[in-house]
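Lab notebook, bench 4. Still working through the backlog of constructs that have no structural model yet. Next entry is a single chain of 191 residues. Request: give me the structure tokens for it.
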Amino acid sequence: MGDGESLNAGMGQSGGPALSRREQIQGFIELLKSPYLHYRWKSAEALGEIGDESAVLPLIDALNDPYVDVQWIAAQSLGKIGDQRAVDPLIAALRSPDKWMRIGAARGLGRLHNPKAVLPLTELLKDPKPDVRKTAAQALGIIHNEHALGPLHEAETDPDPIVRDEVRKAIRTIENPPPVNSGVPDSANPG
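Model written out:
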């Protein structure tokens, strides 16, 4: 089966018998090694949507793809899957010279909610690229860790108004956590 046929079969578009979920996942994992960029990034994206943990190690390998198109989608897909094995490789990816890789890694780390990512993400608040700083602030708000507050307060003076807005949103999210639902309807709580 050629690369195009694998991708179509994995997406259920081949017109032939439907593949099992396991076969689809394996097909997408194999396509991460395709010589064709389009198939690699589409596979990385599909594996994130499927969310199966068997894709974690192949997606971690895809962080080293020669093309950032694959790298940043692999980073985001790792966040979608939610497996903590991705934390250290994504933290390492924050040091990439490519802004898109730093953005993808920050998004992935935000979705993993691991406090280990807080310090490296706060360092991104000083990145030269505004989109990277904005994404780091968003990720810190999602992680919701009080250790991010100091660096976030420092970033309130960022020269970019969009970054400042995201920094303020992150601060509000951390300082004002949503109320814990007690499971009792509000009308039943006297008060």
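Notes after review: The mean pLDDT is 89. The CA atoms of residues 64 and 71 lie 7 Å apart. Flag for follow-up if needed.
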